[in-house]
Amino acid sequence: MTQKIERAKYGAAAYEKLTGTLPIPFPREMGPNCMKYLQEVVDSGLTLDMVSRFEQAFAAELGVKHCIATPGCTPALASLAAAFNFAPGDEIIVSPITDYGTVQGIVKEHYIPVFADTAPGTVNISAETIAPCITDRTRAILVVHKTGLLCDMDAINALAEKHGLIVYEDVCQAIFSSYKGRAAGTLALAAGFSFDSEKTLGSDVGGCLVTNDDALAERMRFIAHSRGATFEPGFGRKHIVAGYANRMPSCTAAVTLAQLEIIRDQVTHIDAMARLLTELVADIPGVTPLPIPDYQDVYSCWMFGLSIDPTAFRCTVDDFAQQLVDAGIPGAGTARYYLIPACCTFLEESARARTYPYSLPPASREYHYSADSCPTARDFLETFIRWSTICAKYEPEHCALAAQIVREVAERNRV
């Protein structure tokens, strides 16, 4: 008898059982031209190139030369990993607090993920935490702008340049966040974005890659869209590399294009609400919201997070989170599963068994993957609580209500 696995849910299905008094993203606001663009696809009999239309619009909005549309953020980053064409066993440094989609492509290309610890008090890595991880096998640094908060890219880029490393960005939770006047996704060689339905620019699904590098853009299209195939007259397709069919569907492109037309106003509003909520929560003793860096001009917040001082309260962190849910904050909870070296148990199994690519000499180190691999990130997540997307539906009264709920739970459990 086949054992039934409880599979993870995504998109609206992950939100359908949430209850509370604060807004959630669903049902989504849809761009006013959504049906118009979908109808154009249908009326054309699938001859309309809506994907290129979206790519051009997104590239122009972000201010980059190239956008390559994909079915989602995970295939976007996987295609980018393949396009780099590193050797099996080469190392990519990446944040330990992220999502599996960040590392999937690294693993599938037989590169080795090396998790830098996070900087104290935040969910992100820094130049200081990356530096000790660099070896002669390091080829790239994958920077994750978790929850919409941006890493300090000038310092990271300077470190990478010193060692001759590529830097690329996971912007899946930070669309149109801004660093010293520059948009997330334009701060390194290339970047991956998410348009999954729960994300800030939420389509039915979808993602893309962006870059200003002409050669990399051409290789990403070759890998992601053409399955690594060339055409030989008299023969046909020849697959000279192992590519993908990671092409965005036309109807997804139509919906995403419509959503792109309303995203700037939404991000401006989200930024204001996230900063207001951060200010209100910071005033509660024993509770510390995620710090917004001074260098961040726009905070396209996808998820609100706070830490509690466990010595200040009688209850556990998990109990505190559950009381927030009971009081009306949808989806409040701990986020230990974001610690990728702990949640991706197959990594430790492979490293211990020295299976490919861990069997390749010369390894630069003994690889270990567990919660203890990144103690600062581990300890941070032990007292961290986050809740559902800070969406464009939030208004000042919702921020005030959320802060009031946090304050009441804190006072009820204070030592």
Word description of this protein:
- It is a single chain.
- The protein is built from 14 helices and 16 strands.
- It has a domain at 34-257: Aspartate Aminotransferase, domain 2 (3-Layer(aba) Sandwich).
- The mean pLDDT is 96.
- Strands 1-9-8-5-4-2-3 form a seven-stranded mixed beta sheet, sandwiched between helices.
- It has 415 residues and is an alpha/beta fold.
- Helix 2 (34-43) packs antiparallel against helix 9 and helix 4 packs parallel to helix 5.
- A hairpin with a 2-residue loop joins strand 6 (178-179) and strand 7.
Number of helical stretches of at least 4 residues: 14
User: How many strands?
Assistant: 16
Named CATH topology of one domain: Aspartate Aminotransferase, domain 2
Helical proportion? 25-40%
SSE pattern: HHHEHEHEHEHEEEEEHEEHEEEHEHHHEH
Which structural class is indicated by helix and strand composition? Answer: alpha/beta
Report low-confidence residues grouped into runs of 5 or more: none
Largest sheet: 7 strands, mixed
CATH architecture assignment of one domain: 3-Layer(aba) Sandwich
Mean pLDDT: 96
Shape: globular
